[in-house]
Amino acid sequence: MEDSVDRHLARWRGKAPYDELVEGVVTRMQMLVKHLHQTKAAALAEVGMQDFEFETLHRLMAHSGGATPSVLAAELLLSPAGMTGRLDTLERSGLIRRVRSTDDRRRVDVELTDRGRELWTEAMQIRAEVESEMISALSLEDRVTLDGLLKQLLHNVESPH
Amino acid sequence: MEDSVDRHLARWRGKAPYDELVEGVVTRMQMLVKHLHQTKAAALAEVGMQDFEFETLHRLMAHSGGATPSVLAAELLLSPAGMTGRLDTLERSGLIRRVRSTDDRRRVDVELTDRGRELWTEAMQIRAEVESEMISALSLEDRVTLDGLLKQLLHNVESPH
DNA sequence: GGATAGTATTTCGCTGGCGAATGATTCGTC
DNA sequence: GACGAATCATTCGCCAGCGAAATACTATCC
């Protein structure tokens, strides 16, 4: 079995001081994520939604439909400025609502509108299909293994140092 | 051991029809790639280079320093328009050179300049460090396993249907 | 051999995201 | 209890990428 990264690495062999394994893992992850992004974008377009919109609604739902911009930004690995931009778009589309917090008036609470909840539900189906399709190549056991390894990596990256 | 995705999934448990394993794998990959992107961007900035520049130079090197825009675009999962933009930037910075092909004059050959080769070499060090740092959490054996699993996924996604 | 279809690249207008600076509010400390 | 530092969100100017249309060239077909 061969993928495009194999071909890429083969072209490289011997030409540079180069850890093929590291490069392989990294490049494959990047391409998978990029593929996923593009496939989901195409699928979600049918409901008239963009990936970043779903991503945001989804995080909001995880917070029971309400959270502050800074929390969302941190979780989505987004700059504060980028978050504001997203929320602007979502608000204009009527999917979220901004409410100035009463106890700490620096804060803004972001809430899902009914329409936002609806759209999220629709998108869930579509997205789940696309993601499952990608993972379908692996047995249940392999999925667990993969998940575990990725978790080690992410933990390492997230823990201070 | 716990990562941010664990916490995210925990918040979700029972609230939605939801394959935790699929979501876990997908989300972790996305976050790792995003992290990598940000870390590399920060590291490469020291040489005054951006990630997309390196990515392009690197592909070019893999083609022994010369390739056409369309080939590069395909390999980098980029639109033709996006590729043109990248090449414009790289050309302005003096890292690549465009040469109209003589036999088929619709074609353009993209070549690395000496400066491009130099900068690529510098960047290779930096990038390798960042990537290795990320992978360092895994034993050699685990790396092989991870790489194999990712390869299965990518192969599945790339093979027609 | 001239119209037609096809291919490679570029141009154009638009969008999401970033970094830095700004405005608004709260906290800490003396 | 007031002043300076920290915190939260937004605005601004900029940039890389996309989709669609335009441009430039080649191949095909009658």
Overview of this structure, please?
Two copies of one chain form a homodimer. By secondary structure, chain A is mainly alpha-helical. The first copy, chain A, has a single domain, classed as Orthogonal Bundle (Arc Repressor Mutant, subunit A), CATH 1.10.10.10. In chain A, 66% of the residues lie in helices and 7% in strands. Chain A contains seven helices and three strands. In chain A, strand 2 and strand 3 form a beta hairpin. The longest helix of chain A has 25 residues. Chain A is globular. The structure holds a DNA duplex (30 and 30 nucleotides). Chains A, B: This is DNA-binding MarR family transcriptional regulator.
For the report, how would you describe the main beta sheet of chain A?
Answer: 3 strands, antiparallel
The second-level CATH architecture of chain A is Orthogonal Bundle
Instruction: Tally the beta strands of chain A.
Output: 3
Q: Roughly what fraction of the amino acids of chain A lie in strands?
A: 5-15%
CATH top level label of chain A: Mainly Alpha
Distance between the termini of chain A: 37 Å
Uncertain segments of chain A: none
Order of helices and strands of chain A: HHHEHHEEHH
> Taking strands numbered 1, 2, ... along the chain, how are they ordered across the largest sheet of chain A?
1-3-2
Shape of chain A from CA axes?
globular
Helix content of chain A: 55-70%
The CATH topology of chain A is given as: Arc Repressor Mutant, subunit A
Oligomeric category: homodimer
Radius of gyration of chain A: 19 Å
Major interchain interface with per-chain residue totals: A-B, 61 and 61 residues
Secondary structure category of chain A: mainly alpha
The total domain count of chain A is: 1
**Tally of helical runs of chain A:** 7
Domain HTH marR-type (chains A, B): 18-155
Pfam families (chains A, B): MarR
Keywords (chains A, B): DNA-binding, Transcription, Transcription regulation
GO molecular function, one term (chains A, B): DNA-binding transcription factor activity
